Amino acid sequence: ISFLSLSEFEQRTINHQPSEIKVAPDYYPVCQLKRENKRITKSLSGYDMAIITLTNSVNLETGIKVVSLATESDIPIPESIVYMVGYGQDVKDSDPAGRNGGILKKGSATVMACKHKTYGNPICVKPGPNSKQIAGPGDSGGPLLFSPQGPIIGVASSGVVLSSLADLCVEYSSVARMLKFILFNI
């Protein structure tokens, strides 16, 4: 597991070894269907979450920041503005170096009602309000926040092309809806 320190003076990668990975139990049936090449008629993003236990404690003096988790009531409503962070691809970046990912980026998005069948009731977002920016390949696992300071309300899972919107919707697993699983395993 690698963390990138957020120090403005010295950005560096800090590596940790995982000792245990706990996947949300509701995610397994969907994974089994995929392994059996059976058709899945709903998006599986609502349960796309895991708890990773590290072999050593994280030293917060290295520049790694801690952001609080959502509470059970922290579920955004459609048209609310949220913030996303990730290292993924950004084909609209004017700097060619940023198009392939690997550069930490943050942006805002607008919550929308999911207009497709889903498992686990994920948080769906679309670009906006003042940009065409959206999470992309490589952003999976990145946080969705109520404000730039937190709390974390979602974890990036997948993108879905919606023909009715002629655009992409990104699904985030809801921390509030998965809070019992999270708290039981940390």
UniProtKB/TrEMBL annotation:
Residues 1-186 form the Peptidase S1 domain. Pfam families: Trypsin. InterPro entries: Peptidase_S1_PA, Peptidase_S1_PA_chymotrypsin, Trypsin_dom. One of its GO terms (molecular function) is serine-type endopeptidase activity. GO terms for biological process: proteolysis. This is Peptidase S1 domain-containing protein. It comes from Schistosoma bovis. The lineage of its organism: Eukaryota, Metazoa, Spiralia, Lophotrochozoa, Platyhelminthes.
